[in-house]
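so the lab meeting is tmrw and i was supposed to have these ready like two days ago... anyway. pasting both below. for each one the top line is the aa sequence and the line under it is the structure tokens. i havent really looked at them closely yet so no promises
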Amino acid sequence: SVAIQGDTIASGSDDKTVRIWNATSGVEQYVLKGHSDRINSVAIQGDTIVSQSRNETCYWNARTGEALDADEAEASITPGKKTLVNVENETHVKLSGGIGFTTDYHITRSARQGSVYVIGDDKGMVHILHVQGVETES
């Protein structure tokens, strides 16, 4: 699962970790461990990252990577909100003007904020695409 807000990307994985990335540089900033099962969804609100697995929800400080308890987090969002990214044939992101992105693996999660697209595939890769001057097709 992937989410983006501002310059922060959060990705949740089958390896039971949440990773925080810098959207501009693509550099991984933190690996967050605390789930006992694979991560199904992540969301970002302000400085809080919310991650969900089958049987638990965890809260994290996006700036420090520290675990938070639910009271500290004061989060009121539901992870898993879909964003509009046009995926074709499970491996291709289609943008207007014939521009696109293809991976060898099935695209399992995607998020978009403005011109930044974050694509997660079933190989565990997180692809960060910076696209200028292109609108998505509906």
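ok protien two:
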Amino acid sequence: RQATPRLVVGEGSGSQGASGAAATMLRSLLLHSLRLCAQTASCLVLFPRFLGTAFMLWLLDFLCIRKHFLGRRRRDQPEPAVELDSDGEEVPPDDPPVCVSDDNRLCTLASLKAVWHGQKLDFFKQAYEGGPAPNSEVVLPHGFQNQHILDYARGNRPLVLNFGSCT
């Protein structure tokens, strides 16, 4: 890491050190306010998409539960004869049996959190198919210096990044 000059209150000519600290605090407050505004704006943009997705998850749960309860009512009727194929083996039904419990619902707090997180990641992504590659900053293992990925590109040669093996 590079050494950055620090402002120490009380150094230099008395009032200039205090005004420098006040300017730094004001700059920091402004930066935090801008970040808060950006986060609020992104939430307002993402919220309708999130509500649509949450409604679809709820609707899928509702339809699954409805099918389960309607299936119970139909069980009071006589069971249809078992279908046999040409070899005399039993043909499985078109729909598997529906098992509804709290463990296999789609619209849960955990799934809604995952949907919100995924939509935020998608909204703030920097790389798009067919677009230019982002020039992300990387930290070198020796010396902990910051450089950009595209600093390693040479001419028309493709740049290959190997992040190691996951196996």
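from a quick look at the 2nd one: Confidence is low (pLDDT under 50) at residues 5-12. The first helix runs from residue 14 to 74. will dig more after coffe
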